[in-house]
Write a structure and sequence with these properties.
The protein is of the alpha+beta class and 266 residues long. It is 26% helix and 51% strand. The strands form 3 sheets. Strands 5-4-11-10 form a 4-stranded antiparallel beta sheet, with no helix packed on it. It starts with a helix and ends with a strand.
Length: 266
Amino acid sequence: MNRTKTIAAITLALALTSSAAWSQVADTPAKPADAPGQVSHSAQMDADRARFRIQTFYLTNASQQNEANEIMVALRNLLPPYVKTFLVADQNAIVIQATPEQLETAKKIIADLDRPRKTYRLTYTITEIDGGKRIGTEHYSMIVVTGQRATLKQGSKIPVLTGSYNNGSATAAAGVQTQFTYLDVGMNFAATLDEIDHGARLNSKVEQSSVGEEKAIADAQEPVIRQTVIESTSFLSLGKPLMLGSVDIPGTTRHMDIEVVMEQVQ
């Protein structure tokens, strides 16, 4: 009797196990077979790796690190993920390990992105007018490469007292150490050009500063700095002057006009 019960229990367990296994197999979707003549993705990867070659591409026009990084991002997004790409920053070069066909694709991508940038000359004209009469004109020119920031400064550095302390010397006069900082006074220009259809977009900042009367602050005569700043985004066409702004000069009847003109150098 016990033997009969044991056999029945084993038979029931096998039946349940077989049922669970059948249910698991039935619930798992079958992997579709590759169509006749179709190569699986993993097999294609292995075939490509067997044909890998290494080639170095030297960037001739990307002069900044971020430009080379952007080209690298484009290569990694457009080439298969198993293709290896390396940026050698100090050589301004990209090393790629890929098939001959993929290397040709990479070569075309790099040629399209690593293009020479155009160079322009920006000429700023500062004109002072009093009572409708032009009393003074100044010209400032700078060479700007598209996509890169350029600056121009002309003026003086004005010392400003920032503090003093005694270093403990026995002689009071010799022990006093005075600290100064220097302020740039004059004309400051900052410009960034980006090419667009039929011209360029100019992000420009023009700053004029001058020294006014001195004022006593904490028993020291400190200079007052007068400042005018025009910061804007403008659209330029070749050879056509653009007025950036016109500013009245405080305490006088004069005003100052600021315009810029763009000329292509190469």
